[in-house]
Amino acid sequence: MTGLAKILETVPPVAFAAAYGSAVFKQAGYAGSSMVDYIFAVENAVEWHAANWQLNGLKHYSMLGTIPSFVMDRVQQVCSDGFLCAACCQL
């Protein structure tokens, strides 16, 4: 099972998922720290965030996770063109 498939087992269903970053494919000669970023496309962000909060809580969210999912969706729409970046979340 791939890393992305393992991650998808820990979150609510998504319509599309992609992974990118220095750890996705082994890079010859690269000695720096490895990192993977994930992109999830979901049908309904409010429902998805509510379900993900139930599954993962602060493990996947910063303090933004303490606000209601509909507010999270609004922050996502107004402040970031529909993207929510959860930097350094523990997976």
Please indicate the percent range of residues in DSSP E strands (runs of 2 or more): 5-15%
Order of helices and strands: HEEHH
Low-confidence region ranges: none
Mean pLDDT: 77
- State the assembly state of the protein chains: single chain
Report on the biggest sheet: 2 strands, antiparallel
Number of helices: 3
- CA-atom Rg in angstroms: 14 Å
- How many DSSP-defined strands? 2
Number of separate structural domains: 1
In one word, what is the shape?
A: elongated
Q: What's the end-to-end separation, in Å?
A: 16 Å
Q: What is the helix fraction of residues, given as a range?
A: 25-40%
The secondary structure category is alpha+beta
Strand order of the largest sheet: 1-2
Structural write-up:
There is one protein chain. The protein starts with a helix and ends in a 12-residue tail after the last helix. Helix 2 crosses helix 3 (69-79). It has 91 residues and is of the alpha+beta class. It has one domain. The chain has helices at 3-8, 45-56, 69-79; strands at 16-20, 37-41. The protein has a two-stranded antiparallel ribbon with strand order 1-2. It contains three helices and two strands, in the order αββαα. The mean pLDDT is 77.
In short:
The protein has one domain (3-79). Helices cover 32% and strands 11% of the residues.
